[in-house]
Amino acid sequence: MAVTAIVQGKHELFDDTGSNRTPIDVLLEVLNGQMIPILDGFDSCHTHPMLVTPLGVQCTIDFDEGNIKLVSPWLTP
Known about the structure:
The chain is built from 1 helix and 4 strands. It has one helix at 23-31; strands spanning 6-11, 38-46, 59-62, 67-70. The longest helix is centred in the middle third of the chain and has 9 residues, at 23-31.
């Protein structure tokens, strides 16, 4: 399965250590021009409340509203 979008969580305690680079700057550098839609600053993972976003699940992303909806099961019985 190919990556069709990236959801990047907020980094509440992010410290650029004087580099003036933000997490999105670093991600864009790593992507090196690859055209992948990115939802940046999503309120999950490195923030309070610490919401868990499961890896590898299918979801839909509403870039206008800035939210995601999980569409595949992420818990196994």
